[in-house]
Amino acid sequence: MSNRYFLLLIGLCICINSQAQDPTIQDCLGAIPVCQAVYSETNSPVGDGNFSSEINTSISCTAGELNSIWYTFTANADGQLGFVITPNNLSDDYDWSLFDITDAECGDIFTDPSLQVSCNAAGGEPCHGATGANGNSVFDEQGGGCNGTPPAVGNTPFNDFVDMEEGRTYVLMVSNWTGSPNGYTIDFSTSSGAGIFDETPPEVDDYTTPNSCNENIIVLHFNENVQCSSVNGDDFVLNGPGGPYSINVTSNDCGLGGDYSRTYFLQIDPPIASMGDFSLALLGSSSNFLDLCGNAALPVNLDFTVDEPIPFEFSIGPDTSLVCEGNLLTLDAEPYGNTFEWDNGSMQPSIEVASAGVYSVTVGNDCGFGVDSLEVFVQTELPTIELGADILLCEGESVELDVTNEFANYEWSDGSIEPLFTVDTTGVFSVIVTNSCGSVYDTVVGTYIPPIIPTLEEELLPCEGEVITLDVDQGEPLFNYLWQDGSTDARLELDKNGVYEVTITSECESLEDQVLVTYVEQHDPPELGPDTLLCPGDSLAYAYDILGAIYQWSDGSTDSAFVINQNGMYALTLTSACGLYEDSVQVRYYEAIQTDLGVDTFLCSGRSLFLNADARAEGSNYLWQNGTTQPYLLVQEPGVYSVEVSTPCETIIDEILVEECEICEVFAPNVFSPNDDGFNDRFQLLSDCVLEDFQMRIFDRWGAVVYESTDPAEGWDGRRKGSKLSSGVYVWWATYTVTENDKPREISETGDISLIK
């Protein structure tokens, strides 16, 4: 693996970690390691974990991750993988897909169809229940459905055994198509060969080490997945020149929240600082670098050499460095290495120079070498500067100050270090200019004249008799003022109506401003009047006309006119130049009369009727036909009753007819003689009322029906099917409905009748 490829991996790791989530057993990164023959899942989880859509349905036989669980293992030897998934409820339908991710990552499953090794999505009668790869068919892929022709549709819930190779890593996704919570058992004991259960320690089968100074990454690739939680930088010791070194271990998969990874990155701190021979040791321990079945990695020693020198850059000073005549300048390269060679032959870390010229040095350290040079000039006098007189600036203007001196340094009062400085605000500006012979200082005041701001309102409405002050002061001594009356102060007092004008000038501009002053006459406070009762449809209206007044009614309106047309408490706050006034009024409306004595009715002897004329309206008066003035009247006899109900807004009259109640009597004879003599020849129920919904049956002493009819006027003539019956006692039963007082009453009765010849 090249160093460039490794650096790309580190960049990918940092990017992915920024979006890390914690994987669960429903995600490939959190797959359950297979370290035993049988796994029982008593409850099937819902959903597809924190990493959704890991299965691409367009390149997989399954419908995706449906309530999934993942498993993973690394083959311990060549052989054939076999397993059977048996639902706890044999009516449940499970699908599955097996992937080889030895040379890939979990995230590659979605895009790389070559990773899928075997897949089964058969379902439905008789393909539900147990499924797996147990050699019961010759197929490695079974599509959806049952009893079809693979691979387009399912044929059987079982696939062929899967050929597995030693050291290759597989993940198995089990999908719960049914969505049942009952769970399942997965049995790997049908595998042949050495089995799939890992009993050997993980080993480093590839690695990348630094080969030049300043590199800080070692990449270890194991022959199987290693648990993230078992990896620690303290498990490593790096020996070599430039130490001591500490190790920090990271992984792309672990950074995503996964439980395991095959590739780990060892970050060296500090980076390699010297060329030479190095040795990296992984300390042996029963608790570090464990594979998914708990086997610990054996001690590892990796030797490597850093032998590529790298040029480096350094600076012994700016490209031009100055020395004042008669002084010495020290050029120092000691911080940058341990081997020095100046162009004048000196091998010391630093040299002193007093004459003009170009000086260079070569510096070497344990990782390489670098070269730097500078030119030295000799100066004879101090810098010269002149910032000039103080500055006045109008809006949008600026002045550039230039203190350029050859081979000088600059420091302005705002911290800037350039020779040119722009003044565009008010302030005190100073500069120190320094060369090899010393420093000089100068200062200048810049004053920014702000624009004139109009301050007068268009109109003022003071209260009659009030003295007011117009103030146009701009807050600076650089402005002049002239009012229409000739006064030159920034403030003007007045107590009369009129238009007042002022002209404001500065060195930058001139502005005219004016205001109309109208005095408000003294006025009486507004009055809404006393609380009142109104009839339905009536209203109260208010209107005011006060100059400049602000109106605030209790309902939020701000008009000077206001109409009240419903119950409520109403308030007005009126604000004018002459004061603040408040008033309120309670308005209530008479309710409409709702008296209703009801429909005409009946009254039976010995009973009474309560008439209620309550109008449910405030201020109602009552007058009954008998002079009673209460809302209620107790009626004890039939008749016509009326009441007059009135309020200040309306009057209504209501009446009710109370009639004597009706009682229907029905007579049933107890003997008759059907001898055709025209007297008492038929048995029937007799009544002055109409008998509706009539039914009658007559039974002999043995319970047989001898007569039945729905016509109350027909009557029984003592015959049964045309034949006369013998004398005796017969039982009758009848139901019917009578109407009394405009209301129906159902009656059911029975009795006996004696037939005499």
Please, could you describe this protein's structure?
- The chain is mainly beta and about 750 residues long.
- The chain contains two helices and 59 strands.
- The strands form 18 sheets. A six-stranded mixed sheet has the order 1-3-12-6-7-9, with no helix packed on it. A five-stranded mixed sheet has the order 2-13-5-8-10, with no helix packed on it.
- The protein is flat and about 170 Å long.
- The protein starts with a helix and ends with a strand.
- Mean pLDDT is about 90; it is low at about 1-20.
Mean pLDDT value: 88
User: Fraction of residues in helices?
Assistant: under 10%
Silhouette: flat
Structural class: mainly beta
Proportion of beta-strand residues? 35-45%
Strand order of the largest sheet: 1-3-12-6-7-9
Q: Round the Cα radius of gyration to an integer and report it.
A: 56 Å
Tell me the total number of β-strands.
59
Distance between the termini: 130 Å
Low-pLDDT parts are: 1-20
Sheet having the most strands: 6 strands, mixed
For this structure, the quaternary state is single chain
Question: How is the secondary structure organized here?
Answer:
Layout: H1 3-17, E1 32-33, E2 38-41, E3 69-74, E4 79-81, E5 83-87, E6 94-100, E7 116-122, E8 131-133, E9 141-145, E10 158-159, E11 162-164, E12 169-176, E13 184-187, E14 204-208, E15 217-227, E16 236-239, E17 246-250, H2 252-255, E18 260-269, E19 276-282, E20 300-306, E21 320-324, E22 329-332, E23 339-342, E24 350-353, E25 357-365, E26 368-379, E27 391-393, E28 399-402, E29 409-412, E30 420-423, E31 427-435, E32 438-448, E33 459-460, E34 468-471, E35 480-483, E36 491-494, E37 498-505, E38 510-517, E39 532-534, E40 540-543, E41 550-553, E42 561-564, E43 568-576, E44 579-589, E45 601-603, E46 609-612, E47 621-624, E48 632-635, E49 639-646, E50 651-660, E51 666-667, E52 671-672, E53 686-687, E54 692-699, E55 705-709, E56 719-720, E57 723-724, E58 728-740, E59 743-755
Parallel strand pairs: 1-3, 7-9, 8-10, 21-26, 27-32, 33-38, 39-44, 45-50, 52-59
Antiparallel strand pairs: 2-13, 3-12, 4-11, 5-8, 5-13, 6-7, 6-12, 14-15, 15-18, 16-19, 17-18, 19-20, 22-24, 23-25, 25-26, 28-30, 29-31, 31-32, 34-36, 35-37, 37-38, 40-42, 41-43, 43-44, 46-48, 47-49, 49-50, 51-53, 54-55, 54-58, 56-57, 58-59
